[in-house]
């Protein structure tokens, strides 16, 4: 109850721009106004933000502006709203819309709860059309990497004959090896027959040999 009231209060002061002392600008902010925020709230939610605000360059700036060149305005706006009211973001459509950008931001700026929310969303939305892209773009995050590898390994027959998979193997031979390891891992894929294993191994070896 207290947490809900606190979150609601923080969201209210953000919306009303009450005593703001910080401006946040995204990479495409030329056509948008900067986002007004509070140093104290953002520093409390992110150790990286705290260090950025404590840097000599930021302290010397008269308008206390932080730039996020890697993010678009709506993505940054969603991130800021999360900083003030994480409960409101859990079911937000914008979380799904900007999940990859928010996930990368959560990793970069060390915002664990947002990272976990985004990771869960990425895992729950895995499909044959996005799994390879997710695997190639995942940073050092073992739970997410393992989930993607497991999904691909469980659905390997869907991927093997696709041009996309062949291109993926050509561009990412090391990840192709990791997929093979995942397929052979009885913890990830507990019920594969010996014949299936042999067929997959032969096909993967053929692909990687052609690449070399």
UniProtKB/TrEMBL annotation:
Pathway: Protein modification; protein ubiquitination. SUPFAM superfamilies: POZ domain. Residues 20-92 form the BTB domain. It comes from the Eukaryota. One of its GO terms (biological process) is protein ubiquitination. PANTHER family: BTB/POZ DOMAIN CONTAINING PROTEIN, EXPRESSED-RELATED, GENOME ASSEMBLY, CHROMOSOME: A05. May act as a substrate-specific adapter of an E3 ubiquitin-protein ligase complex (CUL3-RBX1-BTB) which mediates the ubiquitination and subsequent proteasomal degradation of target proteins. This is BTB domain-containing protein. It comes from Brassica campestris.
